[in-house]
Design goal:
- The protein has 310 residues and is an alpha/beta fold.
- Helices cover 34% and strands 20% of the residues.
- It contains ten helices and ten strands.
- An eight-stranded mixed beta sheet has the order 5-4-3-6-7-10-9-8.
- Helix 7 links the parallel strand 4 and strand 5.
Length: 310
């Protein structure tokens, strides 16, 4: 009776649905949902699909193979890595050991310009961490000092303090031209052992040289605190790396320093567009010359200016 009651002259009789023959594939559209909002678009679509199957008398569990699995935590992590450019290749780069710095090398590009060891070749680093005074500047500096000191053919005898000595070319030039001893101040251990000491050995001046491996600022500060520990000097050369020095502070230290003798000459190499004072304590400016991008300034006693003009 029930089947006849449902029969209709306009519709064919309905047979019971076969779950195995029925395969429904509904597109699932993923809708981005803000973090913390309830349920995701995929979960809502899955529930809607279950209700649809149940409405037609089908068991939704029979169609689990057709459903798309939710992405696992590992897949989500991989997807985030790809989006942020931190995949396996990036991870390998992150853990790869850093390349060791290349060993520093030397070459013989400098030479002594005058005096006892004239034309003797000197070592200098190939890198740009050390910037030796150009030979044209060094030659001009010693010509001025010899003329101002009253000894055109050689330096007036005395002690020399070579600050920021690097290769030692300035102090070695001074000993070659008549200075009795030189104190070298250089903080780079590699430069001292591989450049400065070999240069002093090859010129024969190691026995009359004193090397202070310390920062110049600390050396001057120590000398100021412990007056009498170091002798006063007749010549002081200041040839620093341009970008690492405050010239005003450095000259102030020299003004107060007991290292500056009464008749001392101070030689300063400095870059363009740098304001330099007209005097350094009781010493006056006796020369200020430009060599390309480098300037050479020499302070000295007042009597030296008269001799130089004469």
């Amino acid at each position: 009776m029930a089947s006849s009651a449902l029969a209709s002259p306009f519709l064919p009789p309905l047979s019971a649905p076969n779950p195995k023959a029925l395969s429904l594939r509904l597109p699932v559209r993923r809708i981005p949902v803000a973090s913390g909002a309830a349920p995701s678009g995929a979960a809502a679509a899955a529930r809607e699909r279950r209700r649809f199957l149940e409405r037609y008398g089908l068991n939704p569990n029979d169609f689990e193979d057709d459903t798309e699995e939710e992405p696992t935590e590992e897949r989500r992590r991989d997807r985030r890595k790809r989006r942020s450019g931190r995949g396996e290749a990036a991870a390998e780069v992150a853990v790869a050991p850093t390349k060791a710095s290349e060993p520093r090398e030397t070459h013989k590009m400098l030479q002594v310009l005058g005096g006892k060891v004239r034309r003797r070749k000197l070592l200098s680093p190939k890198d740009r961490n050390v910037r030796p005074m150009m030979e044209v500047v060094r030659g001009a500096a010693f010509d001025i000092l010899q003329s101002a000191g009253g000894f055109p053919s050689s330096l007036r005898p005395g002690r020399w303090l070579d600050l920021y000595s690097g290769t030692g070319s300035v102090g070695i030039e001074a000993m070659s031209r008549g200075c009795s001893e030189v104190h070298f101040v250089e903080m780079d251990p590699w430069v001292v052992s591989e450049v400065l000491k070999p240069n002093l050995e090859c010129t024969g001046f190691l026995d009359v040289s004193h090397i202070h491996m310390i920062r110049v600022e600390n050396f001057l500060s120590n000398a100021e605190k412990s007056s009498g520990k170091y002798p006063s000097f007749d010549y002081i050369s200041v040839t620093p790396p341009y970008v690492e020095v405050n010239y005003s502070t450095l000259l102030d230290q020299l003004v107060r320093s007991p290292l500056v003798g009464e008749d001392c000459f101070i030689l300063v190499e400095y870059p363009l567009k740098t304001e330099m004072p007209e005097s350094c304590g009781s010493l006056i400016k006796i020369a200020d010359r430009r060599f390309g991008r480098t300037n050479l300034l020499i302070y000295g006693p007042t009597w030296a200016e008269k001799k130089r003009r004469a």
